[in-house]
Amino acid sequence: MDYKKIVTGQLEVNTYVIPQTNGDCLVIDPSDHCRDVVNYLRKEKLRPIAILLTHGHFDHIMGIPEILDEYKEAKIFIHDNDKNMLADSNRNGSVLMGVDFAVNSGINPLPEGATRVGEFEFTVLHVPGHTQGGCAFVFGETCFCGDTIFAGSVGRTDLPGGDSVQLIKSIREKILTLLPQTVLCPGHGGRTTVERETRSNPFLR
User: Fold this and answer.
1) What is the distance between the alpha carbons of residues 43 and 121, in angstroms, rounded to a whole number?
2) So what's the pLDDT on residue 53?
3) Euclidean distance between CA atoms 130 and 149, whole angstroms
4) In sequence order, what are the beta bridge partners of 183?
5) Residue 57: predicted pLDDT
6) Which of 18, 47, 86, 162 gives 20 to 30 Å between its CA and that of 64?
7) Model's pTM, two decimal places?
8) What is the pLDDT at residue 96?
9) DSSP class of residue 145?
10) CA 82, 83, 88 angle in degrees (round to 5)?
11) What is the pLDDT of residue 28?
12) For the chain, which residues score pLDDT lower than 70?
């Protein structure tokens, strides 16, 4: 699958750009200091039609204004269970960084199941545990899994809305049931596969 990973923000978030041949693209989890993403979109002559959010924590959403400043038609999508995080700096955690960050408009629901945005077709998996509205996006044999699972680790659950039992259940029932060769593209760090994490992730034994 064709996609571009650009590391953004103070917490080194993996922001992903998924292009199509017609120039449309999706942007997943834009963090703060997102200028490299905008420059890449300009260079490749891409038009983001949607910003997909795996969850509502500040480090995965603070680049939204930078994208919308340049591409005002892009729509924001997040699961309903995390929608209230966008409008509340206490809920999204930006207040911890000394920033009162909120997004209050242009937000669209992202229910679980087969989804179509423009010409993009993918599957949304609702994977609560890291947050209550956490999602993963499956494009064929590539899964953009946010902070649900990492190479050799899993997402933290000590923040509001986190639930460790729920997280492991989501991973086992939604992520590890994908094809073994499915590439997992997490919100931080390097990519991995379903097969590798099934076999060796110490948090899943």
Assistant:
1) 25
2) 98
3) 9
4) 142, 193
5) 98
6) 162
7) 0.97
8) 87
9) E
10) 95
11) 98
12) none
